Amino acid sequence: AIAATDITPGANTDxxxxxxxxxxxxxxxxxxxxxxxxSAGQYTLTLRSPLLIDFGQPVLGHIETGKSETRVFQGRRGxxxxxxxxxxxxxxxxxxxxxxxxxxxxxxxxxxGPASNxxxxxxxxxxxxxxxxxxxxxNDASAGSYKLTLTExxxxxxxxxxxxxxxxENPTFWTVAATAGQPFRLTFSDP
Length: 191
Prior knowledge:
It is a single chain. The chain contains no helices and 11 strands. By secondary structure, it is mainly β. A hairpin with a 5-residue loop joins strand 5 and strand 6. About 15% of the residues are buried. The mean pLDDT is about 80.
């Protein structure tokens, strides 16, 4: 059975299958052939492990013209995450995709973050799975350096009469248990 294939028309004859996941352990066979089976010649085949991204540990990278960078992480059902892709002084217009193990695009973003950087915000993961973060330029003709950050969103509870203080470095999320029609007065101040 074919696990994955790449048939890319055009001048570039290189093929790439970004990430393949095997559902069962065992021996896999990789078949290499030309598009129509008529070409012959030398080739290079490279097998690499995917690049991991850990929660709270920003990674730096570089996106080449017309290419993307893929990172993977293990997520839990119901886990709320943020993914921020920031250009790192190069001026690249960042674009993010989050995909599941079957390569379905779950969500994407272009300019949702600060300074028109890509931000997938408060996304709730649908299952216990390995997820792929695809970082690329919105315009495939550009290239540049980036900083990619994956964080888990932790909400804290606030109750009526409670006063909290914090430091505005990263977004902080608060929850409040309310009933329909219940009024609240919320005050936010800069000390």
